[in-house]
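Single Protein Entry

Contents — chain, fold
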Amino acid sequence: MNAVRSILFNIFFFAGSLFWSIALLWTLALPEKECTKIVSAIYGGYIALIERYILGLKLEIRGLENLPKTGPYIIAAKHQSAYETLKLPYMKSLGYPAIILKKELTYIPIYGWNFHGMGQIAIDRGSAMEALESIVRGCQSKLAAGRSVIIFPQGTRTAVGADKPYKAGIAKVYRDVQAPIVPMALNSGVFWGRNAFFKKSGTVTFEFLPVIPAGLPPLQMMERLERAVEEASDRLAATAKA
């Protein structure tokens, strides 16, 4: 059953993504905030629909009470799957945050243009130093405009249970932008593996953890962030598997 669901989902996902990318081209002429709201409501709603009714995959969100009540912030999230990149930028409860993504994604014809319209932060990963500086500039720009930012501190998708170090870049971003960090754990990889064609039905959980305030020593922040996210993500994965 999961194989049939996955095949149907992938057909609807790729066909629908192409259709809505073309149908929503007009939103590129709008300010990024308005573009994001419209794309989130239509395309984000379409993705949620086929996930639930074709793939049988639902989303549970925990810990919204941990989000800062005033001012934008950085969400430092675990990254196991494409699932969270399809969800987080479209979440109204987060104020439609900007996400840091590979610049190569913006080169995808038509589909990639929407990333520009929504004001996402596209990074060229060719030079580590240049990439880091562009991340800092992008974060500063979005935070100054009142938008929160999503960053994946491990830098890439990791399999459930894989031991991959957190990159030092998050420490520089934290030090330079002076914004609080909300750690975010998840278990999406249990259902939607890294680069996996076949997915599983079930319930993905996103859990926002207690905020790490701005102004701590960067290494102390890194220790708190990694411990919180890894422990919570392991717990969520174990629960999902059980």
Summary: The chain has one domain: 2-241.
